[in-house]
Design a protein that fits this description.
mainly beta; Neuraminidase; 4-stranded antiparallel sheet; 2 helices; 39% strand; globular; binds calcium ion
């Protein structure tokens, strides 16, 4: 396990502070502010994605295949979803709004689709207009469908994000085919993709000239991306991805780059055996951060509001396996400190900021919590 010296020091300081608190029962403020949680939406199983509408109401995807509109304290089921196959990690997944949603009502949804070639399913991206009055999706358009289908229930991705130029990015995981998909740009899976908002493939995507390539691909050599977000200042797309045992990563996505999976990795097989000796290779990008042991990251957003004193510009990442919310302090493109928030709250599946600047986390089997500072 490699931890850089500054991170190690900060972890030690934090640990000592916590011990001090236990021993003397004197409150020691280990972070600039303290937080309490308010359960806002209950009765949810796996709320995989959340999207706040301009009126602060909320669209929620339940992985088991229900889309809800939460408004005025009530969860209303939204009609008009396509055919979704529930298997393993696949089902109804992410949801985001078009950057100009106010004027066009487009929402973007990722899901496991059984359509097309072969038995099973693969990741699909669609958009539709959300008709809030009638609680339904209309004008559904399929924008991308990975192929072929597979009966594997593993590594669908699939997070969605827009950049400042209005391009749509999404992740598709390696579908459990580590040695087949991620390094081969003629195949789907283990990639980040880029489309125009209407699904057209940008003519300057990196592999448009390459024979046989899947030309929606923007970067490759990825494992399974469960977090994707735009940096609030640079506008770059940041992504995290699950490693195997160890080696979960944060990557900043650049056009046409190879992020190395599974040729280079900081992780090992689940049984502890090695699948590569390499952590670096020329022509392959290094993550800006990696987690060993794996936290199983899910959901990711930058804090851009002033509500949480001292936290502006920090990155939030949910942890499924260790059941907390991680706050990462960032300087430029470097992670300089990690802080554990909401310890033992449960499997944190998604984290988003609402239009009024509050942070919301979705926790499996519990629901959606709002984070409220108590000593602002
Ligand atoms: Ca990598």
């Amino acid at each position: 396990m490699k931890i850089s010296t500054p991170i190690l020091l900060l972890l030690c300081v934090s640990f000592i502070a916590q011990c001090h608190k236990k021993q003397n029962d004197i409150p020691v403020d280990t972070s600039p502010i303290s937080i309490q949680t308010e359960l806002i939406v209950d009765d949810l199983t796996i709320a995989w994605g959340m999207a706040f509408l301009p009126d602060k109401s909320l669209l929620i995807t339940e992985k088991s295949g229900t889309l809800y509109h939460y408004i005025d304290g009530e969860k209303k089921e939204v009609n008009g979803l396509p055919d979704i196959l529930m298997r393993g990690q696949g089902g109804l997944m992410d949801i985001i709004l078009h950057p100009n949603y106010k004027n066009n009502n487009w929402v973007y949804i990722s899901y496991a689709s059984p359509e097309g070639e072969g038995e099973g399913s693969n990741t699909a991206i669609m958009r539709a207009k959300f008709d809030a009055e009638n609680n339904t999706l209309t004008e559904n358009q399929l924008l991308y469908k990975a192929s072929p289908n597979t009966t594997s229930g593993r590594h669908y991705g699939c997070r969605l994000a827009f950049d400042n130029q209005g391009y749509l990015y999404f992740t598709i995981g390696d579908r459990g085919e580590r040695d087949l998909n991620p390094q081969d740009i003629t195949l789907d899976g283990g990639k980040v993709y880029r489309l125009h908002d209407d699904g057209q493939i940008p003519t300057d995507n990196p592999f448009v000239e390459q024979t046989g390539a899947q030309i929606a691909i923007y970067s490759y050599g990825h494992r399974n991306g469960q977090g994707l977000t735009k940096h609030p200042i640079t506008g770059k797309i940041w992504k995290h991805e699950h490693g195997p045992k160890g080696g979960d990563e944060i990557n900043i996505i650049d056009k046409g780059k190879n992020y190395g999976w599974p040729i280079i990795s900081y992780g090992v097989n689940y049984d502890g055996t090695k699948f590569t000796e390499l952590t670096h290779k020329e022509g392959m990008e290094q993550p800006i951060h990696y987690w060993t042991p794996s936290i199983a990251p899910s959901g990711m957003c930058f804090i851009t509001s002033d509500i949480y004193r001292g936290w502006k510009g920090n990155l939030l990442v949910g942890s499924l396996s260790f059941q907390y919310l991680e706050r990462l302090e960032i300087e430029g493109n470097k992670v300089v400190n990690r802080v554990k928030l909401l310890p033992d709250i449960g499997r944190v599946r998604d984290v988003r900021m609402s239009p009024d600047g509050y942070i919301y986390v979705s926790v499996e089997s519990k629901g959606i919590f709002k984070l409220v500072p108590t000593n602002k």
